[in-house]
């Protein structure tokens, strides 16, 4: 199994303030990793650093994606190379139609891969297939990006985008937050449907709940900007029972 | 020297006596008198300087320093071809080329009975009594209005009788072409009878250094409705200083939309007076301003009657050292109770050197009214940009999508079937850099 993502001694700062303080993590193709941790541990920072957001600066260490250095690449180049960030808070973009948005994204990625861009008809056919699996209607897909969506609809729309863009590395940032149990199951089904021997996933979550439906191969605990424990899925249950309370001491040690 | 005046020595002004014989209505004594009165008023008023509050943000010194003369007799073939392509095949169209009616490019016969579309030069003969009253307004306007009245050139006159509905869009084209600096003073009048309806779409464009100084009077009778659209894509070296005066009787509806991308300096003044209950004045627009451009939108809505509504929604995009001005005044008279007035100006500043001055002004003397105003200025939203980029959309394309969405929100103010007229203009503007 080839590694999709290799993070080596990653240090990163947000607006000059150090948040990630030496993360090491290797994710191979086909694997699903979960990163858990208390609020403020650096979970979302890690997702933004991987996606290349402005203001999230790598100060030390390396991030290799399929063996290539990611640091310094624009977010759109990372996305075209196959990295997908499912947002904790998907952004509403008034005035931009969902279909225009997704078709532009889809074709930008196809072009980058040297593939022929899809015309409007081909694109609609494809999106109809995918939206059905996520229980989304034509109307929802045509609507202005995320405008007027409930929390659950926004997360489903993230999953639809992921299904359309077929990333090699999916980073799911708190995808379970704000979902009721039915929406959680729908979203989990969407994630499970995309599990693939050629695809790696990194799920970032505060609660173990999602991990009952999307069972990870590995679980890591992030605290104080470092991974303080790693294990298999049983670690998630242990944390659920005992909480993050005793991790602070370990992290500081 | 009065500091509120900005004097200028335009060659065409000096040639008044030589020119007036060739201008519309020359054989009519009342027109000649009106021209002379207007010239005297211009000589008294001159151009407004920045000391005049309404001109605080717009400097006419570059205009005053240009040696504007009379326009050439014709415009180039490429420009005429463009003019001929405007509007649906059978739609009414009136073309003013360098201030003169161009019959070959115009189509005036497709209006229903009870509606007349004609050039000012003809209307002065046929509709003299009707026009006298409107043309007299120049004498209580500013120096620019007086200059327009003194040198009044062709424009369009639309008269729609009571109860008559004109369904096709009436296209009016102002095409200008100047090898040496030329001044144009189109004069337009729209008179709509009780319950009449029409849609007028003005398009202004051209080549070269010129100054277009159009004045438009609109009078809407009881329950009349006018959609008045304007596209301003004048030459990059042009000055465009337009003013419109709208009078609304009870129940009348005026809907204006302005899309402006052209000219080095443009100003669009709209003064509306609501004289009857239940009337509605709706002004909206999009101003796209690039490097080296200055665009000023000045509105003034006077609610003189109760139970009336006004709504103003403008979206501006400024790039390079582009400078935008939005001055929106709403006055509500003491007995204009139950007035509903809303005003919004949103500006997007795409560069550090871009500037917007927004000045909302409310003068409310009635106590039972609903009045609101808002103005914002800012850059694109970083979260939105990142979201698009995180999906593989390049930074430039992402910005274009967001700017387009921002501007097109203004188009939601007009009916869907008229938006197509403005969308290509916005898309075209976004295709090329303006920094």
Layout of SSEs?
The complex is a heterodimer of chains A (253) and B (435).
Chain A lengths: L2 E12 L2 E12 L3 E5 L6 H9 L4 E10 L2 E2 L5 H7 L1 E4 L11 H15 L7 H14 L4 H5 L8 H15 L3 E5 L7 H14 L5 E6 L12 E6 L2 E6 L2 H9 L4 H6 L1
Parallel strand pairs in A: 3-8, 3-9, 6-7, 7-8
Antiparallel strand pairs in A: 1-2, 1-4, 4-5, 9-10
Helix pairs in contact in A: 6-7
Chain B lengths: L4 E2 L4 H4 L1 H4 L9 H17 L1 E2 L12 H4 L12 H8 L8 E5 L2 E2 L13 E5 H7 L1 H8 L7 H8 L5 E5 L9 E15 L2 E6 L4 E16 L2 E6 L4 E9 L5 E10 L4 E8 L4 E10 L5 E10 L4 E10 L5 E10 L4 E10 L7 E10 L5 E10 L5 E9 L3 H8 L5 H14 L7 H4 L3 H9 L4
What are the key terms here?
heterodimer; A: 253 residues; 9 helices; 10 strands; 27% strand; B: 435 residues; alpha/beta; two-stranded antiparallel ribbon
Which geometry of chain B do the CA atoms define? globular
Rounded average pLDDT of chain B: 96
So what's the overall shape of chain A? globular
- The structure class of chain B reads alpha/beta
Provide the residue-averaged pLDDT of chain A: 93
Main beta sheet of chain A: strand number and arrangement? 6 strands, mixed
Pick out the low-confidence regions of chain B.
none
Helix coverage percent of chain A: 25-40%
Which regions of chain A have little confidence, pLDDT < 50, spanning 5+ residues? 248-253
Report how far apart the termini of chain B are. Answer: 39 Å
Number of strands of chain B: 21
Strand content of chain A: 25-35%
SSE succession of chain A: EEEHEEHEHHHHEHEEEHH
Query: Sheet bearing the most strands of chain B, described?
Result: 19 strands, mixed
Helix-residue proportion of chain B:
10-25%
Helix/strand-derived category of chain A reads alpha/beta
Beta content of chain B:
35-45%
Radius of gyration of chain B over all CA atoms, rounded:
21 Å
Number of alpha- plus pi-helical segments of chain A = 9
